[in-house]
Design brief:
The structure holds two protein chains of two kinds. By secondary structure, chain A is α+β, with helices and mostly antiparallel strands. In chain A, 13% of the residues lie in helices and 31% in strands. In chain A, a hairpin with a 5-residue loop joins strand 14 and strand 15. Chain A is globular. By secondary structure, chain B is mainly alpha-helical. Chain B is 40% helix and 6% strand. In chain B, strands 2-3 form a two-stranded antiparallel ribbon. Classes of the chains: A alpha+beta, B mainly alpha. At the A-B interface, strand 2, strand 4, strand 5, helix 6 and strand 13 of A face strand 1, helix 2, helix 5 and strand 4 of B. Strand 15 of chain A pairs parallel with strand 4 of chain B, so a sheet runs across the interface.
C-alpha cells in the first residue's frame, strides 16, 4: 500500500486548476443541440411535468420520491426493537442542518408517545421551592435559539475494531446531527426555583420506558443549556424528545435527556447505570474514564466517501465534509490525499458557529492515482483531531465511547473507495 | 415639523413601554410542588448511600426463580453471552486482553443495580416488578460471583453496604477534562 502511495505522491490538491482542463476540452466538444437547423416539435421536446398540472398541495411536505433512499439506517436489538440507534445519512446530505426526519436517534426503550397536556417538568431537590411546570406555561417563557450538534458518545465506535468497517460514512459516523434548537435557558427555571448553595449536580430523568436518568454538573445547566421545545423551527419530533428535552451544546448525547420530566438538584452524582456501566471508557490498565462529557474535535469527508465512486479519471471532484468540536469553533480543516504526508487547508463555509457543524470544501484534481483522502480538524482551543494510531495508543481499544480519530478513504486507480486504517 | 412630532411619538412609546420590559422579563409560572416532590413516582432515583430505596427484601434463592422467568430470555441462563448485556462473571477481567464489563466485574455500586432494574427491566414491562422482587434479583446476580453470600437477605439497609469489586475503578474526567 505504501508503494502505491509513493507512486501517486506527485498528485496534488489545488484550488480549481480549471483553466487548463477547460482549454483542453473545448476543441473536442461538438456543436450544441440548440444550434441545429431541425424544426422542433415543442410538445414532444418538453418533459411531461411541463404539460400537465402538477400534484396537489400537501399539509406537510415530504422529500421527492426520487430521494427515498436517503434514510436513517436503523440498528436495533432484534429482541428489543426499541433499544438501538438510527444513523443520519451524512454522506447523502449537504450544508450543515440535519433535517428533522433524519436526525440520529438513540433510544433505550422505544419512542414514547407523550400527550403534552399530561406532561410535567418537576424541578426539586436542593432548591428553595420545588416547582412543577406544564408545557403550556413553558411555552410562555422567553426563548433562545442555538444551532449546535448533538453527538452520541458511542458514535464511530466501529473505529475501535481491528478491521476497518466498510460502511457508508453516515452509517459509521452519523450518530451526530446538527439542528437549530429553540427553548428556555435552563438557568431561568432553576433560578425561579432557587438554587441552594450545596447543589452541585442535577439528576435529569426522562419519561420514556427506560426512565433514563443521568447526573449533569450544575454549572453546565447554568451556562449554555437549553430546555428545548422546538427543533429547526417546529416542535420537537417524538424521537427527539417531544414535548421537551435538554440540549447541552458540545456535550455527549446521553446528557441531552429527551422527554424530560425531572431535574433534581443534588450535592453528588447519582452513579446511574448510564454514567457507570455505560458511557464510561475502559482503559488498558483496567481503570475507566468517567464523566467524559466533552465531545472533542472531529471531522469526516462525506464526499467522496465509501459507497460512491469517481467516474472520471482524471477528473475534478469537490471534497466536502463536516467538522465539529464540543469545545467551540472549528478554526481549521486540512485535507490530505497522500495518507497524511502533506496537508492543504480546506475552505470553511460560513458561518462558523461554536459547537456546531462546520462544512468544509476543497476542489481536488484527481490524476487517477492511488490516493488516501483524509480530513483533520483543529478547534479554537488548539486541539487537533488525532490519528487512529495516536488515539489507540492513548486509550487502548476497549473504551468504546469517544472515538474521534481521522478517517481514511482509500481511492483505488479504478475510482473505488474503501475505508482503511494505517495512515 | 412632521419629523419632530413623529420622533416625539416614538420617544413617548419608548418611555411608556420600557419599564415593563426592564423590570420583569418573564412571568414565573412554576407551581409549588412540595407534595409531588415527596411522591414515590417522582423519587425513582437511588443514590449510592441508599437514599431512595424502598422497603422490601429478597434472597438469591428467590431471585434465581425470577431470573429464569424474567431475565434469562435476553441475558442467557448464566447471565452472559446472550443478546442483552452481560450481568455475571468475568470479575477481574478488566485489565486483561479480553475485558468483559459485567455488572459484577464493572459496576461500582450495587444501588445502581436496583435503580436500573426497577426503572428499565424487564424491557417489555418496566416497573412491573415489586421491590421484593428487585431485591431478590440483585441478591441472585451479586451472589453468582460471591459478592454477597447465597444466604444474604438484601433490603434497603444491606444493599448500600455492599462493596462492588470495581468500586475504585473509575477516574472522573470532568471538570479537569484530562
Amino acid at each position: 500500500m505504501a508503494s502505491k502511495l509513493s507512486e501517486g505522491r506527485r498528485q496534488f490538491l489545488h484550488k480549481a486548476g480549471l483553466g487548463g482542463a477547460l482549454t483542453g476540452l473545448a476543441s473536442s466538444i461538438s456543436l450544441p443541440v440548440w444550434a441545429s437547423e431541425e424544426k422542433l416539435d415543442l410538445p414532444d421536446a418538453l418533459p411531461e411535468w411541463m404539460k400537465v398540472p402538477g400534484g396537489e398541495f400537501a399539509n406537510y411536505g415530504q422529500p421527492s420520491k426520487h430521494e427515498q433512499q436517503v434514510i436513517r439506517w436503523i440498528s436495533a436489538n432484534s429482541a428489543a426493537p426499541g433499544n438501538g440507534v438510527s444513523w443520519t445519512p451524512l454522506h447523502d446530505l449537504q450544508g450543515t442542518i440535519t433535517p428533522n426526519g433524519l436526525h440520529y436517534e438513540r433510544h433505550h426503550n422505544g419512542v414514547p408517545q407523550i400527550d403534552p397536556s399530561q406532561h410535567l417538568l418537576l424541578i426539586d431537590g436542593l432548591v428553595e421551592q420545588a416547582l412543577s411546570f406544564d408545557i403550556k406555561s413553558l411555552l410562555r417563557y422567553p426563548m433562545q435559539s442555538r444551532t449546535c450538534f448533538i453527538e452520541c458518545g458511542g458514535n464511530s465506535n466501529s473505529g475501535w475494531r481491528t478491521n476497518p468497517i466498510q460502511t457508508q460514512a453516515g452509517y459509521a459516523h452519523g450518530l451526530v446531527s446538527n439542528a437549530e434548537w429553540t427553548g428556555i435557558p435552563v438557568k431561568l427555571l432553576l433560578q425561579e426555583a432557587g438554587i441552594k448553595p450545596d447543589a452541585k449536580w442535577v439528576i435529569a430523568e426522562g419519561a420514556d420506558a427506560a426512565a433514563l436518568n443521568i447526573s449533569i454538573p450544575l454549572e453546565k445547566l447554568l451556562d449554555d443549556a437549553l430546555l428545548a421545545l422546538y427543533q429547526n423551527g417546529e416542535r420537537l419530533r417524538p424521537e427527539n424528545g417531544y414535548p421537551l428535552r435538554l440540549v447541552l451544546p458540545g456535550w455527549e448525547g446521553i446528557l441531552n435527556v429527551k422527554w424530560l420530566r425531572q431535574l433534581r438538584l443534588a450535592d453528588e452524582p447519582l452513579m446511574s447505570r448510564d454514567e457507570t456501566a455505560q458511557y464510561t471508557e475502559l482503559q488498558p490498565d483496567g481503570k475507566a474514564r468517567q464523566f467524559t462529557f466533552m465531545m472533542e474535535a472531529k471531522s469526516l469527508i462525506t464526499s467522496p466517501s465509501l459507497g460512491m465512486m469517481l467516474p472520471d479519471n482524471p477528473g475534478i471532484y469537490q471534497i466536502s465534509g463536516l467538522a465539529w468540536s464540543g469545545r467551540g469553533k472549528i478554526t481549521r480543516v486540512e485535507i490530505s490525499a497522500d495518507g497524511g504526508d502533506t496537508w492543504v487547508d480546506a475552505e470553511l463555509q460560513m458561518p462558523i458557529l461554536a459547537k456546531a457543524f462546520t462544512r468544509f470544501n476543497l476542489p481536488w484534481h484527481w490524476q487517477g492515482d492511488y490516493a488516501i483522502l483524509q480530513s483533520r480538524a483543529t478547534d479554537e482551543t488548539g486541539y487537533v483531531q488525532p490519528t487512529r494510531e495516536a488515539l489507540v495508543e492513548n486509550r487502548g481499544k476497549h473504551g468504546f465511547f469517544h472515538y474521534n480519530a481521522i478517517v481514511s478513504w482509500e481511492i483505488t486507480e479504478e475510482g473505488d473507495i474503501n475505508h482503511v486504517y494505517g495512515f | 415639523m412632521f419629523m419632530v412630532s413623529k420622533l416625539l411619538t416614538i420617544a413617548c412609546l419608548t418611555i411608556c413601554l420600557s419599564p415593563s420590559y426592564a423590570e420583569e422579563s418573564f412571568q414565573p409560572l412554576g407551581n409549588a410542588a412540595d407534595e409531588q416532590s415527596r411522591a414515590s413516582q417522582w423519587n425513582l432515583s437511588i443514590s449510592p448511600t441508599g437514599k431512595g430505596l424502598p422497603q422490601g427484601q429478597g434472597t438469591a434463592a428467590q431471585g434465581a426463580k425470577l431470573f429464569a422467568i424474567q431475565c434469562a430470555g435476553c441475558h442467557g441462563p448464566e447471565g452472559i453471552g446472550a443478546s442483552a448485556e452481560p450481568l455475571m462473571g468475568e470479575v477481574g477481567s478488566l485489565s486483561s486482553k479480553y475485558p468483559e464489563k459485567t455488572v459484577n466485574s464493572y459496576w461500582p455500586y450495587a444501588t445502581t443495580l436496583f435503580d436500573y432494574i426497577r426503572r428499565a427491566m424487564p424491557i417489555n414491562a418496566p416497573f412491573s416488578l415489586s421491590a421484593d422482587e428487585v431485591y431478590a434479583l440483585c441478591a441472585y446476580i451479586l451472589s453468582k460471583d460471591g459478592i454477597v453470600s447465597p444466604e444474604t437477605v438484601l433490603n434497603e439497609h444491606s444493599l448500600p453496604q455492599i462493596k462492588m469489586p470495581n468500586r475504585d475503578g473509575f477516574i472522573a474526567i470532568h471538570p479537569d477534562n484530562r
